[in-house]
Amino acid sequence: MSEELKIFDKNRNEIGVADRDEVHKHGYWHETFQCWFVDKKDGIDYIYLQKRSNDKKDFPNLFDITAAGHLLSTETVADGVREIQEELGIDVHFDELIPIGVIEDPIETNSFLDREWANVYLYHVKEHDEFNLQQEEVSGVFKATFNDFSDLCFDKKSEIKVEGFEINELREKIIVNKNLSLDKVVPHRKEYLQQVVKQIACHLS
Fold first, then answer.
1. Nearest alpha carbon to residue 18 among 39, 33, 35, 2
2. Which of 49, 124, 151, 157 has its CA 20 to 30 A from that of 183?
């Protein structure tokens, strides 16, 4: 099914609407919604990453932003909160999110140029939140200490420990602990990751 996206110039002036495939083929700037989950346990701050499904066309099995997606031409930024419910099965109201800015997030591969104006938000996980994954999109959810993730993004560590769960082919939840390096993360630019980490750090108490 075709997805129509608003397209922009490099100064964020809206210049029209295009099909998602055309947007990536020609490298048009477009808007996305991104939400990073964090929480605190025993005085330690954690950040959550989703593991993309093996069925994904782009970057299968890589780790990524907790929840994210493209904003359609008919949607506002607030409508992007649907991505959290769709991908993770958690109902979140837009007013529960903390805005941390609009950040350039271009990703270039041999097959497409994904130039995103990312509307980035932060969500503090609540005790009653329970992940119910959309398996076509997400195969698992993991968390790392925020300090470890920051060190990974700033090249202070080459590998960090993450813990979480994956859903197997039998739809069973399997607890998993593993090591994570940046080559197992969707190839966001270092500038993007570092800016996100800096902004999130300002909102951790």
1. 2
2. 124
- Tell me the fold of 4-201: Nucleoside Triphosphate Pyrophosphohydrolase (3.90.79)
Token pair 């608003």 in the structure block, residue: 6
Q: Which residues contact 164 (CB under 8 A, 6 or more apart)?
A: 48, 51, 140, 141, 142, 143, 175, 176
How many other CB atoms are there within 10 angstroms of residue 37's CB atom? 25
Q: Are 21 and 180 in contact (CB under 8 A)?
A: no
pLDDT category of residue 1 using cuts at 50, 70 and 90: low
- Please tell me the pTM assigned to this model: 0.95
The whole-angstrom separation of Cα 72 and Cα 19 is 10
Instruction: Find all residues with CB under 8 Å of 54, minimum gap 6, and list them.
Output: 60, 61, 139
Backbone torsions φ then ψ of 167, nearest 5 degrees? -100, 125
Domain positions in the chain: 4-201
- DSSP codes, 6-17: EEE-TTS-EEEE
Two tokens, residue 148? 């470890």
> What are the tokens at 8?
């922009």
Lowest mean pLDDT among 36-40, 100-104, 168-172: 168-172
Quick one: pLDDT at residue 57?
87
